[in-house]
Batch of 2 targets.
Target 1
Amino acid sequence: MDKLESEMIDEMAANAREYPVDGNVVIEASDLRKSFGPLVVLDGTDIKIAEGETRVVIGRSGCGKSVFLKHVIGLLKPDAGKVIVFGEDVPSLKTNEIYKLRERFGMVFQSSALFDSLSVGYNVGFFLYEYSDLPRSEIDDRVREALRKVGMESVEKKRPAELSGGMKKRVGFARAILHEPDIILYDEPTTGLDPITADVINELICYFDEELDVTSIVVTHDMVSAYKVGDTISMMYAGKVIQTGTPDEIKGTDNAFVRQFIEGLSEGPIDVIGGTG
Ligand SMILES: Nc1ncnc2c1ncn2[C@@H]1O[C@H](COP(=O)(O)OP(=O)(O)OP(=O)(O)O)[C@@H](O)[C@H]1O
Ligand SMILES: [Mg+2]
């Protein structure tokens, strides 16, 4: 990347930082930096997310979306910068404090991450069955209720291998909401699904947003999903957030980098061959 381009990106990031937050900020990253050896992934990522908001994070494959989510939940430690969640400085928390904070999160993984040897019901209730003191019958009830919320009440006794990709995703959703989280992180919830199944998943994200009163981050490169579920959308490029806006603001953007991405064009300022950003 030449000097001119990096100056342009810094300027876009500075503008994105000014985007007003509507409400109480519950997730904040500032000047977040993370490299793996020589590979710079996060290079001054700034983001502020308000309570109850559904923020979509878009960006090319390999630009650091999953790495960003892992910082929010304390699975990765930054090289520099801050991650504040509910007022707590995540990187400085002790292991037991991290676990306590994670109880407030529901995580929908990029792969559904279900244990194939366990029943669907046990997968959904896994952490409560294994680690809580709740009576088994109560966990069973909660599992059934969570599966009902995602429209999957009939599959409790099945194995994950018997389910389609879309069904596995929904089971992953049931697991994420079982403990009534305050924040749900979705990593590519619709990737690899047909458009109709993807829409079922989008509807579920909207339903959780309304019914569960949660704050959500949805990482995706599916623009149909981004426009449907997002209150706001942030685009990551070259390790930074280069624009934040409502779906309408993003659709109408004159930022050439964002336009190229949302329209899926090989021509444009984004370095298609060399760049990971
Ligand atoms: N633990 C790790 N060790 C080394 N490199 C890593 C690690 N985690 C991620 N990376 C690298 O960091 C870059 C960003 O990865 P990340 O998984 O965040 O991308 P992404 O934006 O989620 O992409 P995708 O849309 O394909 O899921 C990639 O080049 C990846 O190989
Ligand atoms: Mg990813």
Target 2
Amino acid sequence: MSFHFSRTPVATAPVATTYRRIATPLPVPESLPLLDELAAVETRAMHGQMPIVWDRAKDFQVWDRWGNCWIDFTSTIFVANAGHANDHVLAALRRAVDAELLHSYNYPTEIRARYLTALVAALPDHVDKAYLMSTGTEATEAAFRLMRIHGQCRGKGPGVIAFDGSYHGRTLGAALMSGSAASRDWIRYEDPHVHRFAFPFGADDDNVDWRAVFHAELEALAARGVDPARDISGMMLESYIGWAAAFFPRAYVEAAAAFAREHDILLAFDEVQAGFGRTGRLFAFQHYDVAPDLICCGKGIGSGFPLSALVGRGEILDLPETGILSSTHSANPLGCAAGLATLEEFERHDLVAAAERKGRRLLDRLRALQGRFPDHVDRVNGRGLVAALIFRDPRTGAPDGDTPSRICEEAMRRGVLLVHTGRESIKFGPPLTIDEAAIDEGMDVLAGIMADICGRSGGP
Ligand SMILES: Cc1ncc(COP(=O)(O)O)c(C=O)c1O
């Protein structure tokens, strides 16, 4: 990430609306010692986010200690789907803390039985087992492992198909599958059995024969001597490319699923970011007519408590011997309480339908911005309550990574938190509980900033 948010306090125009309040220069001068303290003792790899000190986050708003308040279009990082500090989740966590069982390793607990039963019941019909962990990367790592174990059981090679541009986490197996060469550099070798396909950008382009695009990748694989029936154990799809909110074309995914079925290859979806309602379905794969063998869940599953899960068909999840697929913090009782309360909130408030409905509004507003700034906004991607504006340089047409960063910084100064990707995109992922009026207000602010920065005006 080459852009650095200014650490010099900048005067702001006062803002006081129902949803936003900006009352100090930003960063807040009094916050600088804390920012310095963190810089001194924390790895710089942790840094790079906007210099505001989060003090409290509730529903779709974030506060600092100095009276500033932002509308949150980040859900931190696609975690607070059920709303920040959701009351029902908080109450469940308080009860769990008061029960004086902070940890139970793999010893049986009632809360784990209740949570897993509810989780499996909430999942698509073909899913009947789950393995609980703490982070998204553990879930994709476990899927990598299970795809290979399953292949091994069938006498197949360890091949896994993954996609350029995808992101699956920071642990070794997840990084080996991830599609950015930079994120694999440190490993200093490539896994010769991970075969990466080009991500099929252009989901809405009906003029492309996406089945043929998929089959061309298979032919290229065959030309390298790879036989799917013999060599490939699994295929891992990130439901959308994170930085761009770019989805797979429907025909491509359905061709991939048919190919996987035909050759006894496990189909895994990385739903760590896309799952739990984000795209207007419980899982993004439900936009397609497919039934993945493995589904990796994280982020929104625990509403902020570190919880993740690999879910799928029992016959696959039960392949490892007893004790092999477990870790110290799997199925922590607090995680189970947070997970169960999250599911209940989804059910009670139909957050999936809310994401679909509010997402239409968000996308309409973003498309209007594209119409207003067509030289700068190359594309609008999104489904449900995840979306991205993709920027290009109006003079060269090349990807423009600078303007989105400047817009994100200015939005912070005006009381709106956007997802800073460090690339040619701005991403939007508010809690699914956000008021539609807050979406509108955030989009009005964004339109004003774009008029200032992109230098053109006119109303959508
Ligand atoms: C699609 C996807 N997979 C996996 C991960 C890794 O999750 P975690 O950071 O919880 O390990 C992320 C995190 O951003 C993600 O977006």
